[in-house]
Amino acid sequence: xxxxxxxxxxxxxxxxxxxxxxxxxxxxxxxxxxxxxxxxxxxxxxxxxxxxxxxxxxxxxxxxxxxxxxxxxxxxxx
Amino acid sequence: xxxxxxxxxxxxxxxxxxxxxxxxxxxxxxxxxxxxxxxxxxxxxxxxxxxxxxxxxxxxxxxxxxxxxxxxxxxxxxxxxxxxxxxxxxxxxxxxxxxxxxxxxxxxxxxxxxxxxxxxxxxxxxxxxxxxxxxxxxxxxxxxxxxxxxxxxxxxxxxxxxxxxxxxxxxxxxxxxxxxxxxxxxxxxxxxxxxxxxxxxxxxxxxxxxxxxxxxxxxxxxxxxxxxxxxxxxxxxxxxxxxxxxxxxxxxxxxxxxxxxxxxxxxxxxxxxxxxxxxxxxxxxxxxxxxxxxxxxxxxxxxxxxxxxxxxxxxxxxxxxxxxxxxxxxxxxxxxxxxxxxxxxxxxxxxxxxxxxxxxxxxxxxxxxxxxxxxxxxxxxxxxxxxxxxxxxxxxxxxxxxxxxxxxxxxxxxxxxxxxxxxxxxxxxxxxxxxxxxxxxxxxxxxxxxxxxxxxxxxxxxxxxxxxxxxxxxxxxxxxxxxxxxxxxxxxxxxxxxxxxxxxxxxxxxxxxxxxxxxxxxxxxxxxxxxxxxxxxxxxxxxxxxxxxxxxxxxxxxxxxxxxxxxxxxxxxxxxxxxxxxxxxxxxxxxxxxxxxxxxxxxxxxxxxxxxxxxxxxxxxxxxxxxxxxxxxxxxxxxxx
Lengths: 78, 641
Fold this sequence. Notes:
The complex is a heterodimer of chains A (78) and B (641). Helices cover 19% and strands 45% of the residues of chain A. Chain A has a single domain, classed as Ferrous iron transport protein A (FeoA) (SH3 type barrels, Roll). The longest helix of chain A is centred in the middle third of the chain and has 9 residues. By secondary structure, chain A is of the alpha+beta class. Chain B is an alpha/beta fold and 641 residues long. Chain B has two domains: 228 residues, 3-Layer(aba) Sandwich (Rossmann fold), CATH 3.40.50.300; 390 residues, no CATH class. The model of chain B has no long low-confidence stretch (mean pLDDT 84). At the A-B interface, helix 1, strand 3, strand 5 and helix 2 of A face helix 3, helix 9, helix 15 and strand 9 of B. Strand 5 of chain A pairs antiparallel with strand 9 of chain B.
């Protein structure tokens, strides 16, 4: 089921499908390794669903709520 | 001399390596983006001129400090590049490597933090990695300085062999597309580089994404070959984050930490025991020491004429000495703030506070520049470069002076010690908090009314926690102490001398013991009408307060020096006017060094003028409100204190 990263709950896995956003943020996300087909794991949300911390390519990446909403993902079962 | 450029991702240990190679004192922290300007130093044993560059994730940068790094690599062309890699994130680091490999510059890869990777169960086969990348790879430890000889050998071999740029994409299906675009009349590197750039800029097809994905594919296949992973238990970082980033407790824990730090630095009665807190204790010691020194010096110069002794005693010791006596207390505050930053906690604070900060048009990333502002506004204004968007950079720079810098602290400590000895910690905490609120107010206003545009993005790597190293803490503190003392010996000394002279010379240039007829008194009286509504300009001695606040433009510590030289700070303020004075001091135009830093970063006269107006008016209006509302409610509250 396709959804966006801002709907990924703590402890869930997702696979990046595509990124839909402006050029600058897109480039930043690409260079950090958020490319299609990459697996990511939601570690936690900040208080009040502010920012999200995901594990991707072996490191922890913090993304704001809006940036998370740019990333189209597919939830992965475990 | 051969130039060696140090490149690598942010927070991978470039500056730590730079320090250990060249014996420099570059600032090191556990936060991506501590280095904002390139630094040069000579590595004598290796025989290189090292250039420490701001961290980048790729060669297509978009913040000013990243642009500076890439510009250096592409245009100034160092003779040799050393990519520092944090071994715990090899996969992501190799992305940059794939781009560096395309340049004609010889490259050496240095694997840093191998020991940490091994505790996480990641083992890297160095020889195999070197084969795959076709460049020398060396294991180093930036902190302990291990592996330097090996590294020097690798660098010299790489330099002798020279290097032609080569892409890792030639095996990828994309290569069919790229190759025809490489113009034959250009050198390989330039041709490749231009072809890639051209493809990345195409709108119709998302080549940029495809190229990035192909680079990451190479990186993943590399990692597959060289890394043997063993499963490990939860890392300490995960355990700590369960507490510090708790959905409900996270933010309260953050504010408690901050309050505790202020309490430990400023409270005259620590934990209600009547014993001074460490910070206050240190300051009392320094005051006592300087008092002793003054007595000794005065006794030594007993034969000198009266004016010379008065000058030494009141001008130098009363002015500059007073400012210096606050140094230990300031260092005490910075010890804890540096401790938190070094440990990696400040990046967590940015994560926690991103949502509220985003409402103000700045993202959680602005947390570090603002926090640096508590130290000094000048590096803070430079640090604002690391923010992604011009809009957030401008807002951040404008509100930095409201984050009370270390130089403003001596005045609070002085007045609070005189007026509210029991409640020092809480009042100073409130002043800092009030400054932050004013900054927040302006950020919100600017975000909503003046600078339109989208909200700033928050994309940041979360560094793992590590125990701050004492020598790193001490280095940061000694650098800060050195800067403070250098300022004391120049700007503050100069200001003290001028103030002393101006308060002992009459208009017809005769020395006088009655400072109320001096030049400075005339000047101060001229300013009085402006400050009387704020509660501290009036009365017989009111000119002293206005003269002191003026000297704050030279350096904020000079306000304390001026009060010291002029004397009578004891009777100058009531509790309420003291607060109003501190508020004005906190919010008004920062010192000239900070103003010129702002000018340097902003480069537009209109913006500078706007900023000066904002700072001055905010200070005046807030002090006015504090004093007037305070007097209206009779200020019974502070009488009880």
